[in-house]
Design goal:
Elements lengths: L2 H13 L6 E11 L5 E10 L15 E6 L4 E7 L17 H12 L7 E9 L2 E10 L2 E4 L2 E8 L4 E8 L9 E2 L10 H8 E8 L2 E8 L2 E2 L7 E3 L17 H11 L1 E2 L1 H6 L11 H18 L7 E9 L2 E8 L10 E6 L4 E7 H8 L11 H8 L4 E9 L4 E9 L2 E4 L5 E3 L2
Parallel strand pairs: 7-20, 10-21
Antiparallel strand pairs: 1-2, 1-15, 2-3, 3-4, 4-9, 5-6, 6-7, 6-8, 8-9, 11-12, 12-22, 13-21, 14-16, 16-17, 17-18, 18-19, 20-21, 22-23
């Protein structure tokens, strides 16, 4: 057992009353942080005394803990099924909010109403559960940070998780001063973000207009896919392996030891996408679209492209906003071998699943904007700028109501 693993297993075992539990596994894993940097996390599992795996599953009462080695403190503590089998677990003074907050502040160094804020609380038969989100200067943050904690009726923590982005934990991040000027081109932005979507119900599709959340000054790099429909269709190279096997192999490749961790190798998913990789990926996506939708050149665009699990992923949607409910294609691509790993085509999936005819909206987009105009709002946010490495103030457009595209009825979030 390495020095750093022994340090943390000893500390958590004594702090959380696990001395008579069996330490079953320890893993150091290289991960991507919420702000696209490389972090290292130590995962640990303990089994209750005398317990073993049951049908390849961890037994009830198993304790899972995770330490973020860059932060230097615990980020997860989970008692499986909340079945606490510790003899004398540490207890909070109570399960009330003030005692839970005091415990979180002592664990993390974060402060309530400075770094995090209560989102909601739930009382259950076996305890209280609290959910918190990150803030900066009393405003929400993107990417978001989350804290979830459950305290049982005895006052023992049986679930705790800190995930996502808490700016205070990254000392090098500066905060740009707030701007008080008015939002420009409000009407244009409302029109841009009003989209048609819906749900599949027993009687068919229910179409709704709603506002797609977005930051007002976000500029997306979108690439329109075009091809010559008369040109020969190129044969596409596609993997025959299941995507799950690829992901499993990649996750295993990011398990490291203490010596490897000290070398500080960047996680593969934070490497920038090169111009040649982007070009090859766009070509292979255009080739797929030409094969399946030969007469729709110029009617599809790439709205996201990123690295994930060692591969590249992209989402393609119609250029016409109203078509996005019915059509979306997701590509997973291996840039090393110029090969498609998986394609999820919403149009093909829906055609296989249901036989309902696709209804045509009777309410126009302009009419929907008028109906929802008083419900659309702009909320102040701080957004992390990955280029400048700063938090910049901005606004997010949002709306908690929708319009039925067939009847014009206003529908509110449940």
């Amino acid at each position: 057992m390495s020095r750093i693993v022994e340090k943390w297993t000893d500390s958590i075992s004594s702090t959380w009353s696990l001395e008579d539990f069996q330490l079953k596994s320890t893993t150091i894993r290289r991960e991507v942080s919420p702000i696209q940097t490389t972090e290292y996390r130590l995962e640990m599992e303990w089994f209750p005394p005398g317990m073993e795996m049951i049908d390849d599953l961890n037994p009830p009462g198993t304790v899972y803990a995770e330490v973020n080695l860059d932060y230097g403190f615990l980020t997860s503590f989970i008692v499986v099924q909340s079945d606490d089998r510790r003899q004398e677990p540490p207890l909070l003074p109570s399960a009330k909010l003030k005692d839970v907050v005091a415990w979180i502040e002592a664990q993390t160094g974060l402060k309530q109403e400075v770094d995090f804020r209560l989102k909601r609380e739930e009382q259950e038969k076996d305890g209280h559960q609290y959910f918190f989100t990150s803030i900066v200067n009393s405003k929400k943050v993107s990417p978001a940070g989350y804290i979830e904690i459950k305290v049982n009726e005895k006052g023992s923590v049986v679930f705790y998780s800190l995930s996502g982005f808490f700016p205070k934990l990254y000392q090098e991040i500066s905060i740009e001063p707030s701007r008080e000027e008015e939002i420009k081109k409000v009407d244009e932005f409302k029109e841009q973000q009003m989209v048609l979507f819906g749900t599949l119900e027993e009687q068919g599709y229910r179409l709704l207009y709603g506002v797609e959340e977005a930051f007002v000054d976000t500029i997306e790099n979108e690439f329109v896919l075009e091809w010559d429909q008369d040109a020969p269709v190129q044969k596409l190279s596609m993997s025959k392996d299941a995507i799950g096997e690829h992901w499993k192999a990649f996750l295993n490749s990011q398990i490291v030891n203490e010596e490897e961790m000290s070398v500080q190798i960047s996680h593969p998913d934070i490497l920038p996408i090169s111009a040649s990789e982007r070009c090859d990926f766009l070509k292979i996506m255009a080739g797929y679209m030409q094969t399946h939708y030969p007469n729709e050149s110029g009617q599809w665009k790439v709205v996201t492209m990123e690295r994930r699990y060692g591969y590249m992923e992209a989402t393609v949607t119609p250029t016409a906003t109203l078509g996005r409910f019915f059509d979306k294609v997701k590509f997973i691509y291996d840039p090393k071998n110029n090969m498609i790993i998986q394609v999820l085509d919403k149009r093909e999936l829906f055609n296989e699943m249901v036989n309902f005819p696709l209804p045509q909206p009777k309410i126009t987009k302009e009419e929907a904007i008028k109906i929802l105009d008083q419900d659309i709002f702009f909320e102040r946010y701080y957004v992390y700028d990955t280029v400048k490495k700063t938090l910049k103030p901005t606004w997010m457009i949002d709306c908690h109501a929708f319009v039925d595209a067939l009847t014009g009825e206003k529908v509110f979030e449940s």
